[in-house]
Amino acid sequence: MKLQLPEDDLVACVACGLCLPACPTYRVTGLEIASPRGRIAAMQAVQLGGAPIDAEFTAAMDACLVCRGCEVACPSSVPFGHLMEAARATLQPRRPAQRRFAEWLGYRLVLPHHGLLLALTWLLAVAQRLRLVPNRFGLPRLSFRSLRTPLDADAHPDVFLFTGCVMDAWQREVHRAALTVMRATGARPGLPGVHGGCCGALHLHAGLDDQARALAKQVIASLPPEGPVVVDSAGCGAAMKDYGRLLDTDGARAFSARVRDFSEWLAEQAPLPLRPSGTTVVVQDPCHLRHVQHAEHAVRTVLRGGYQLVEIDDDGLCCGAGGAYSVTEPSLSAAVRARKVDAIRAAAGDGPFVVASANPGCAMHLAAAGLTVQHPAELVEEALP
């Protein structure tokens, strides 16, 4: 079986090794096969050398976080993330039946059907009250009040907040904070229409390209053809900015050009006066905000007036969340997170602090390690006069 990877991209790697320090799984394991260079060599062996797609190859592909930190370090501009997505798409038919069924439940049944996701979230909230959900899962405390209170859109909107799937179900208060801040700038925020839920980012990570394309088309159709599309989930924003490549249409490219991360959009507006809080905030850059969107500086811009910002001295390494990675690769995910938590605590020092993270997966993953994590939108809202 061939991987069907673009050969020009596959042979662009010159095996220089500059990607190694930027790879969280290599940093944890020290194994060549757990590095971008090693994974590309394995892809080349299969596609160009006729090597079999065996258990070792599959494990190497699955163990990648697709954080894309290697892309920033690569002098040859190898599109490693897209290579990984294509390789996983080839692996999909070879997955064990149990895993394919679990992915069918999660990716094809629940995430694209927002009503079902919300119903399951109500059940999960009840389970939390009955103490049936371990704290190590890192799930936010689900609020019945938040679930039964829909988000409100303004009349005649001039900007749109993308609400997504899991984030709208589990972290809707982040959306409320984002809407409050957007209105404080004088904007009139609107919301997506029907089928404007899941963006397909998790599907791309899993190699479900066809499903991701279908969801991308639905998201584009759910929003008017004009006005910025603000996204307060870094992973969703990265996927939506890539719709032009994914769908390869002029309409998709025009849509992607309108997408802005929440902090990116806010930094483009007139500065909001913030009340100095005295709170120390350690800024954690989600990989898809830093390495893909390159919008991490906007987070500092919008928080600087209200908080004492502290930087992590680890070159933006991944926290180990990686979408569903913490479920599929729990040991590696925990080991990567442990390094990130150590770096966060070292940066913060001895006093109290809050971690600012612009991605729901990162927030939940770090919260499961005992950290207090808030979205930049929540922090800005709290600092409004």
Describe, in plain words, how this protein is organized in 3D:
There is one protein chain. The chain is of the alpha/beta class and 385 residues long. The protein folds into three domains: 7-94, Alpha-helical ferredoxin (Fumarate Reductase Iron-sulfur Protein, Chain B, domain 2, Orthogonal Bundle), CATH 1.10.1060.10; 110-267, no CATH class; 280-383. It is 52% helix and 7% strand. It has helices at residues 7-10, 24-29, 36-47, 55-62, 69-73, 80-91, 97-110, 114-129, 144-148, 166-170, 172-184, 201-206, 209-221, 234-240, 243-247, 250-258, 262-267, 287-292, 296-303, 325-328, 330-348, 360-367, 376-383, and strands spanning 159-162, 189-190, 229-231, 259-261, 280-284, 308-310, 354-357, 373-374. The longest helix has 19 residues, at 330-348. 46% of the residues are buried.
Low-confidence stretches: none
Strand content: 5-15%
> Count of DSSP E strands?
8
Mean pLDDT: 96
Distance between the termini: 61 Å
